[in-house]
Amino acid sequence: MIGIILADDHSIVRDGLRMILESQNDMTVIGEARDGRDALAQAETLRPDVIVMDIAMPELNGIEATRMICERMPKVRIIILSMHHTHEHIYRAMRAGAHGYLLKESAGSEVTKAVRAVMQGRHYFGKGVDSPADTDLLSGNDSPQSPLERLSQREREVLQLVVEGKTSAEIAEALSLSPKSVETYRSRLMLKLGINNIPSLVKFALLQGITPAE
């Protein structure tokens, strides 16, 4: 039986995917997560075979969660769900360790195919997603350079929480840092990105799919 975790901040999406996946005799949903940090915790506890992971989730986005899970649990296969289909988004997902990439609009009809493909050790790219197989996206050669590549993992975590309106004290508590360290990370990431105010930082984060639009 293929054990699957669904990570999406919308319960209606999780419910729909659960119904489709559990209609298959060899698939079962063993956990659901509403944000990337929850997905990471559940993956460590439940040890799934596959995680279906939304990109734009609060607290910790799907790409950062994918990177952390793949580093700690390399046998877990991750399929990204996204509304974005640019080469940059696909590149970031694959570089983080994802095995598949589906657009949300077609995920319902393709998710079982994607799960079977990644369980067989293949990559799966859904309808409307340009497969990077014909480029060097997977190897990282001649790939589009994301501005986020300039940031460390910790800076990307702080970035997301800043644009979601968290105070330095709240971010410090969430990441087990001192408020002073949070301020340092915030100043450093804004300098690296060439952004000097919060509204511009929020706009950048939404464009990159780092945080949900709502």
> How many helical elements?
9
Structural class: alpha/beta
Q: Can you tell me the residue ranges where pLDDT is under 50 for at least 5 consecutive residues?
A: none
Tell me, rounded to a whole number, the average pLDDT.
89
The CATH architecture of the largest domain can be given as: 3-Layer(aba) Sandwich
| Cα Rg | 17 Å
- CATH structural class of the largest domain: Alpha Beta
> CATH topology of the largest domain, which one?
Rossmann fold
Strand content: 5-15%
Helix content: 40-55%
* Major sheet: arrangement of strands: 2-1-3-4-5-6
N-end to C-end Cα span: 36 Å
Got a strand count? Answer: 6
Shape: globular
- Kindly report the name of the CATH homologous superfamily of the largest domain: Response regulator
Protein architecture, described:
This protein is of the alpha/beta class and 214 residues long. It has two domains: 2-134, Rossmann fold, CATH 3.40.50; 147-207, Winged helix-like DNA-binding domain superfamily/Winged helix DNA-binding domain (Arc Repressor Mutant, subunit A, Orthogonal Bundle), CATH 1.10.10.10. 48% of the residues lie in helices and 14% in strands. It has helices at 11-21, 36-46, 62-72, 87-96, 104-119, 153-163, 168-175, 179-193, 198-207, and strands at 2-7, 27-33, 50-54, 77-82, 100-103, 124-125. The chain has a six-stranded parallel β-sheet, with helices on both faces. Helix 4 (87-96) links the parallel strand 4 (77-82) and strand 5 (100-103). The radius of gyration is 17 Å and the shape is globular. The model has no long low-confidence stretch (mean pLDDT 89).
